[in-house]
Write a structure and sequence with these properties.
- Keywords: Lipoprotein, Signal.
- This protein is mainly α.
- The protein has one domain: M75 peptidase, HXXE motif (A middle domain of Talin 1, Up-down Bundle).
- It has 12 helices and 2 strands; from the N terminus they run H-E-H-H-H-H-H-H-H-H-H-H-H-E.
Length: 299
């Protein structure tokens, strides 16, 4: 008798499940109504960048490839200088190579884990400089400026050169969507505010001022290629902020093109840079919305 009741209960439960499952699916299907007419909203990931932005993207990627070419050239100079034992030339070549990298860094960050493999700082890792993953620019910087070990610096440079040449070839064939390019203009400024203005990027070479100038240049170039699409009043405010920042930086530039060590930056100029760049970051963060490339396009 008990077995009969048990079988009946199992049968009834099974019937409930069979009936309930299609009902649940139908309910979920009803949550996304079909869009009709001319006012359809399409997700950003489903559509290509509008054609009007194609030339701007092409121009900026050409600039990126050019900067990476200069970076590779400086790394080759660094390599040769280390082989000759010319540490002074090697140190300058390192700073200039990293400058060129920083002038396009937000674009490189879009390419997966690339930035972390060639530009990771020691403080990314628990074991700091002893971590096997600590490679690339800052390992060279550590061996060259802190340890004064030209042999170890040369080995790190050889490894970075292989990755840098590969990166240059890769970027030449890549494509960036317009929201990412617009966002890069603000990312450059955020990098300055988060690390370089506090002297945290290049702790061994004290070359953060050179990188600040490079980030400013990269951000300005984004705005340059996007100028035809930005409202005149917005563009004027953005350009004024760049001008103010460049005027603060100008006295620190050396004839070689690199900048004085970070510890030469006065407290007054540091606070002035912080003020103008904070405002610039806010203005640039609004560009995606102002250009209607924030989350999706409406057709």
């Amino acid at each position: 008798m008990r077995n009969t009741k048990t079988l009946k209960s199992m049968f009834l439960c099974g019937m409930v499940l069979v009936i309930a499952i299609p009902t649940t699916v139908s309910a979920k299907a009803l949550r996304s109504p079909v869009q009709t007419g001319d006012d359809i909203i399409i997700a950003k990931g489903d559509i290509p960048t509008p054609e009007k932005y194609h030339s701007a993207i092409t121009n900026y990627l050409s600039y990126t490839t050019e900067q990476l070419g200069k970076m590779v050239s400086q790394l080759e100079t660094l390599n040769k200088s280390l082989k000759k034992g010319d540490l002074k030339t090697a140190e300058q070549a390192y700073i200039q190579a990293h400058q060129y990298y920083e002038s396009v860094r937000p674009i490189i960050i879009l390419f997966g884990n690339t930035d972390r493999t060639i530009n990771a700082r020691a403080d990314y890792f628990l074991d700091k400089e002893k971590d096997y993953r600590f490679t690339g620019f800052h390992l060279i910087e550590y061996q060259l400026f802190d340890r004064k070990d030209s042999k170890a610096a040369l080995a790190a440079t050889d490894e970075l050169l292989l990755k840098a040449r590969d990166l240059q070839k890769r970027v030449a064939t890549e494509r960036v969507e317009i929201p990412k390019l617009v966002q890069a203009s603000a990312d450059f400024i955020e990098m300055i505010l988060e690390t370089k203005l506090a002297g945290k990027e290049n702790i061994y070479s004290q070359s953060d001022l050179s990188d600040i100038a490079a980030n400013l240049q990269g951000s300005q170039h984004v705005i340059k290629v996007l100028t035809p699409f930005i409202a005149p009043n917005v563009l004027q405010r953005i350009q004024n902020n760049y001008q103010k920042a460049n005027e603060i930086m100008k006295p620190y530039q050396l004839p070689s093109g690199i900048y004085q060590p970070y510890n030469q930056l006065s407290k007054k100029d540091m606070m002035a840079l912080y003020s103008v760049l904070t405002q610039q970051a806010e203005d640039l963060a609004q560009l995606r919305y102002q250009l209607s490339v924030d989350v999706y396009y409406k057709y």
